[in-house]
Structure to design on (81 residues):
């Protein structure tokens, strides 16, 4: 197909965007891993599991609802919220 090749400038722009997305994703996974380790340590120390699982699950659900309602939510599958 003619005209489908990316220019060098467009390729660099896509590479920078991909790098940014990778760093944001990495940060989210690192924060999640740290939160899991702290929660596990705390629940073992307190010998209590029920509230140590309920609170993070509820907070995660609220965060998902807020992300869905936010106007600046990213596009998913080409659709805007």
């Amino acid at each position: 197909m003619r005209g489908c090749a990316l220019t060098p400038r467009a390729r660099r722009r896509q590479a920078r965007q991909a790098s940014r997305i990778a760093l944001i994703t990495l940060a989210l996974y690192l924060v999640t891993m740290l939160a899991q380790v702290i929660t596990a340590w705390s629940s073992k120390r307190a010998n209590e599991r029920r509230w140590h699982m309920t609170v993070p699950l509820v907070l995660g659900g609220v965060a998902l609802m807020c992300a869905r309602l936010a106007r600046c939510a990213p596009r998913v599958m080409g659709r805007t919220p």
Remarks:
- The longest helix spans residues 8-46.
